Amino acid sequence: METPSAQAPPYRIDPPDTVRTEPLEPLDYQYRQKRDIEIVIEQPEHTSVCPMTGLPDFGTIRIRYVPDQKIIELKSLKFYLLQYRNVGIFYEHMVNRILDDLVSVLSPKRLEVSGIFTARGGITTEVTAVHEGVR
């Protein structure tokens, strides 16, 4: 009897370093002198792949932030997040990476990124990372 062998998926799995921040386009927040606001953005159809199996991971990415001088242009955020589609990355690493990339572009007062992932093997996962900026 032969032992089963691990079979590579019939598609490419990109490494996390292929994700770039260049698509992210910050815009001036014109009311920064008047008031703070909280912005909540959700991408309910987020995909990436498991780096161990190559199987697709599905979930919602929720971004909640209080801008300082910059806000994110939504189309640019969509193109940034789409880069993860073929990337092999663990949930925990992806959420932290998205947080770090957005903080580097926006320098917000506060930013929180959550990944709410659909069940795999009967287990659901929610991961949240937070940046508390200087107020």
What keywords describe this structure?
elongated; GTP Cyclohydrolase I, domain 2; 4-stranded antiparallel β-sheet; alpha+beta; two-stranded antiparallel ribbon
Compute the number of structural domains.
1
Q: Helix fraction? A: 10-25%
Strand content: 35-45%
The CATH topology is given as GTP Cyclohydrolase I, domain 2
CATH homologous superfamily (4th level) name: GTP cyclohydrolase I, C-terminal domain/NADPH-dependent 7-cyano-7-deazaguanine reductase, N-terminal domain
Q: What is the H/E order?
A: EEEEHHEE
Which class do the helix and strand fractions yield? Answer: alpha+beta
**Global mean pLDDT:** 92
- Runs in which pLDDT lies below 50 for 5 or more consecutive residues are none
Give the strand line-up of the largest sheet. Answer: 2-3-5-6
Distance between the termini: 65 Å
* Number of strand segments: 6
Number of helices: 2
* Major sheet: 4 strands, antiparallel
Q: What characteristic shape results from the CA principal axes? A: elongated
Report the C-alpha radius of gyration, rounded: 17 Å
CATH level-two architecture: 2-Layer Sandwich
Just give the CATH class. Alpha Beta
Give a brief outline of the structure.
The protein is α+β, with helices and mostly antiparallel strands and 135 residues long. It has one domain (22-132): GTP Cyclohydrolase I, domain 2. Helices cover 19% and strands 36% of the residues.
Explained architecture:
- This protein has 135 residues and is of the alpha+beta class.
- It has a single domain, classed as 2-Layer Sandwich (GTP Cyclohydrolase I, domain 2), CATH 3.30.1130.
- 19% of the residues lie in helices and 36% in strands.
- The protein is built from two helices and six strands.
- The strands form two sheets. It has a four-stranded antiparallel sheet, with helices on one face. Strands 1-4 form a two-stranded antiparallel ribbon.
- The N and C termini lie far apart (65 Å).
